[in-house]
């Protein structure tokens, strides 16, 4: 797999307010693949997601982080986004006064991908229809008064419009009912492919029934303890994490 399309996390150590959270994470996710990162509460999953995108609260104390051969550590969040990284938030933030349509136009413009108004609106309408989002959504302020399901659909709509090289989904399935989960998962499945890889971060395997990951990693105590195929997620569903965490040793992982 060419380095041009690969996210590489090598012996990554991260602290928050001087408290170590990640303790030597090794991970590789190539563009075009679907990987899942699972683990119990407090294992460091969201910390990894925010660190990948350059959130200033998370301090990398050692290790390496690159995408397509580009060192990410010196780069700001917007510079990482321009390289093709995208984060779906577990708890999306409301932006009162900024409509969905204006937000999406501004996001595309910021990445140098602005398009004619008619083409933009057609594409936005098509993507909204695919996600079963009502047309009135365009004029609503981003996440302001949205239900949990609407927030997650809004995140996937942004993903669909921006089409990054690698999407990190931080517990996108949390708080969704069965129908909303299916709609969101089908939206991600439709977008994933040779041009876009996905790293799904989740507690539970239910979303993976739709996304069908190529590789499943288990994070515990700040490092990846084991990796496997989709059957690993099914084992977690049957047995929980305890049998795996009780026997697994820390291991470096790859695509």
Protein described:
Helix 3 (100-110) runs parallel beside helix 5 (148-162) and helix 5 packs parallel to helix 6 (178-191). This protein has helices at residues 45-53, 77-83, 100-110, 117-130, 148-162, 178-191, 208-211, 230-239, 242-247, and strands at residues 6-16, 19-30, 34-38, 59-67, 70-71, 85-88, 95-99, 141-142, 166-170, 197-202, 215-220, 223-228. Helix 6 (178-191) links the parallel strand 9 and strand 10 (197-202). With 255 residues, it is an alpha/beta fold. Strands 6-9-10-3-11-12 form a 6-stranded mixed β-sheet, sandwiched between helices. It contains 9 helices and 12 strands. Helices cover 35% and strands 29% of the residues.
Sum this structure up briefly.
This protein has 255 residues and is α/β, with parallel strands linked by helices. The protein has helices spanning 45-53, 77-83, 100-110, 117-130, 148-162, 178-191, 208-211, 230-239, 242-247; strands at residues 6-16, 19-30, 34-38, 59-67, 70-71, 85-88, 95-99, 141-142, 166-170, 197-202, 215-220, 223-228.
């Amino acid at each position: 797999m060419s380095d041009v399309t690969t996210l590489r996390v090598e012996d990554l150590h991260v602290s928050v307010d001087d408290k170590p959270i990640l303790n030597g994470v090794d991970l590789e996710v190539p563009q075009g693949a679907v990987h899942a990162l699972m683990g119990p509460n407090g294992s460091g999953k969201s910390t990894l997601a925010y660190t990948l995108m350059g959130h200033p609260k998370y301090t990398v104390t050692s290790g390496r982080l690159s995408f397509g051969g580009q060192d990410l550590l010196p780069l700001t969040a917007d510079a990482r986004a321009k390289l093709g990284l995208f984060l779906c938030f577990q708890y999306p933030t409301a932006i009162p006064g900024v409509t969905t349509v204006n937000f999406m136009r501004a996001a595309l413009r910021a990445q140098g991908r602005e398009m004619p108004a008619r083409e933009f609106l057609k594409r936005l309408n098509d993507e909204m229809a695919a996600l079963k989002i009502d047309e009135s959504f365009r004029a609503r302020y981003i996440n302001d008064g949205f239900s949990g399901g609407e927030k997650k659909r809004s995140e996937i709509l942004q993903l669909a419009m921006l089409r990054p090289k690698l999407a990190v989904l931080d517990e996108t399935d949390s708080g969704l009912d069965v129908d909303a989960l299916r709609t969101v998962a089908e939206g991600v499945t439709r977008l994933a492919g040779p041009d876009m890889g996905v790293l799904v971060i989740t507690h539970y395997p239910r979303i993976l029934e739709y996304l069908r990951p190529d590789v499943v990693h288990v994070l515990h105590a700040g490092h990846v303890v084991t990796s496997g195929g989709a059957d690993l997620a099914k084992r977690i569903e049957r047995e929980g994490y305890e049998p795996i965490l009780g026997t697994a040793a820390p291991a470096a992982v790859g695509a």
